[in-house]
Amino acid sequence: MGKLLEGLRVVDFSQYIPGPYATWLLAQMGAEVVKVERPGGEAMRSVGPRDSDGVSAFYKTVNSDKSIVELDLKAPRDREVFAALLEHADVLVESFRPGVIERLGFGPEELRQRCPRLIVCSISGYGQNGPYRLRPGHDINYLAFSGLLAGTGTREAPVAPSPPVSDYASALQAAATVLGAVVSRHRTGRGAWLDVGMADTVLAWQSTALSNLSRTGYPLTRGEGVETGARADYRVYATADGRFVTLGAQESHFWENFCRAVRRPQWIERHEDPMPQSDLIAEVAALFAGRSLSHWRRLLDDADCCFEPVLEYGELPNHPQVDARRMVRREEWPDPLVQTAFPAWIDGEAPAPSKPPRYASGLEIAEKWKAAAHA
């Protein structure tokens, strides 16, 4: 895993989740990531539970396997160090409002002249242009803007999902686009400026809803679509002991397997009842509500019908599938925390355990990179 991007040097000048998670993905694939923060560190260091060293456990999980450098880019000496890092870096990821990095003297156009091979990835709320370019926002705003919230939740009201969807969506988009730019540079010898808008990343998922609207004239409304609660075969149901289960038996053979497993063969022919399938939904809901989660697990785990309990967070670390995939690791950095692994195996090997963020000298790293470039 650590050799896929071996030799790629990344400067992470971002904060919170989108940029840091994008560079975390690159670090897990072997890139050397140097995270540049203001003196005292970025705001994420104090978000969530703090360890005995005063640093947030949340911050550590998204910045593992990185070197942390503190620089004051308003100070001439630190600006020189930052410039030296960029001179021998392959990628710069930044996540400030449009115009901020330009005012610091490191805008994409300036860097294009000074570092023509550098790939600059700018992550912002609404992108670098358009009337919303300077508009503030958070995940809930981007989900509202993109239409995603219009289809998420109950008939009565939208429900914002957690964790923040646009934060991770934009991180994935940024990492994927950076890798595309790396391939392109190998061919052309030139870097690129990548403009990733967080709102765009979730708007890009709405082609199905927009196509449906253009074809039918009706939007995919909460509670009235195939995947928004209108069908009995694709819903969340409550059990007798206050737990929840999911049924995703959209295909006819999965639905038939479910019906036979719960001894309701009369439901098989009702699979394509007109939506919303209110009567059938009520019957299935009453069935699940009559017995405990453990009962439904015994009956449906092996029924081949797309059944899955809604797991609580405390159940995840010891789940046999999670354990088999080695997705959850308990670490001591220096206090106990849980780190999730890079979600891919390479050549049959599980991702290696992460290492905690390490604080370093920006000047020393810049000199090391310079020496390597001239070796």
Question: What does the model show?
Answer:
The chain has 375 residues and is α/β, with parallel strands linked by helices. The protein has 2 domains: 9-204 and 326-373, Rossmann fold (3-Layer(aba) Sandwich); 234-238 and 244-309, formyl-coa transferase, domain 3 (2-Layer Sandwich). Helix content is 36%, strand content 15%. The chain has 14 helices and 12 strands. The strands form 3 sheets. A 7-stranded parallel sheet has the order 6-5-4-1-2-3-12, sandwiched between helices. A hairpin with a 3-residue loop joins strand 10 and strand 11. Helix 1 (18-28) packs across helix 7 and helix 3 (76-87) packs parallel to helix 14 (362-373). The two termini are 26 Å apart. The model has no long low-confidence stretch (mean pLDDT 94).
Number of strands: 12
Gross geometry: elongated
**Which value, in Å, is the CA radius of gyration?**
24 Å
Q: Give the SSE string.
A: EHEHEHEHHEHHEHHEEHHHEHEEEH
Q: Which class of secondary structure composition applies to the elements?
A: alpha/beta
CATH architecture of the largest domain: 3-Layer(aba) Sandwich
Average the pLDDT over all residues and give the rounded result. 94
Number of domains: 2
Quickly list its features:
15% strand, formyl-coa transferase, domain 3, Rossmann fold, alpha/beta, seven-stranded parallel beta sheet, 375 residues, 2 domains, three-stranded antiparallel beta sheet
